[in-house]
Specification:
Length: about 240
């Protein structure tokens, strides 16, 4: 899931923003997750998942540190170059510093605008991030994207072990990855042409060559023939 992070040291505001973020994810069925909502800089940094991306909603002022969120954004940009950063702050005068430091925030939300306007902007920023995520998944060959119903998903190509046709559901592909198994509409040809990491070991399977030590087509055919006999199992061969 695509990770979202919230830094806000005002507990009342943090609860409000947290509720807005969770509701939009649930209502629009985005493949996203609010990983942490905190007022502590170190807690947020310690909870960043192993990913090149993320959406960060950062309060600019934490405690007596007027530029704490800005300094944190510098660290985030270094660690996660593709992160989307949104500042939620009372300090309009600090907006020029985001340009000076080349942070390139997705948005700059002023708290004085009121909760309704803040909510609209948070929703807009999450929608924009979802659009960016779709575009990057299509463009970047290191991410495999697929769609189930109205929901859009992605998985690092290095985590994909195999893609195979689902014989019980024609026109459906089964994804087998390190931490998930999923069925979705599609055909193997489109993936074989796009991703050089996949090897067509038979007409119904693509395997990630990074997970292959050796390949014996004759043995595979022999195994397939034996498996057609209902009384035999792989461990019997």
């Amino acid at each position: 899931m695509f990770p979202i992070y919230l830094l806000e040291d005002n507990e009342t505001q943090r609860v409000e923003y947290k509720s807005i973020i969770k509701n939009i994810i649930m209502i629009k069925e985005y493949d996203m997750q609010l990983v942490v909502a905190t007022g502590d800089l170190h807690e947020l940094m310690n909870n960043i998942v192993n990913s090149k991306e993320g959406l960060f909603f950062l309060d600019m002022e934490i405690g007596e540190q007027t530029q704490a969120g800005l300094n944190l954004a510098d660290e985030i940009r270094q660690q996660l170059p593709f992160a989307q950063i949104v500042f939620i702050t009372t300090h309009e005068e600090l907006s020029f510093l985001t340009l000076e430091r080349r942070i390139a925030p997705l948005d700059y939300i002023l708290k004085e605008q009121g909760l309704d306007d803040i909510k609209q902007k948070i929703v807009k920023d999450i929608d924009a991030t979802q659009t960016i995520l779709k575009t990057e998944t299509v463009q970047h060959k290191d991410i495999l994207g697929y769609k189930i119903g109205t929901r859009f998903f992605s998985v690092p190509i290095n985590d994909v072990i195999m893609l195979s046709t689902n014989k019980e559901r024609p026109g459906s592909i089964r994804l087998t990855a390190k931490n998930k198994v999923a069925d979705f509409p599609g055909n193997l040809n489109s993936f074989e042409n796009k991703y050089s990491q996949f090897f067509r070991c038979d007409k119904s399977s693509l395997i990630n060559i990074d997970y292959v030590d050796s390949y014996d087509y004759g043995r595979l055919q022999e195994l397939s023939e034996h498996l057609l006999e209902p009384h035999l199992f792989p461990e019997d061969l």
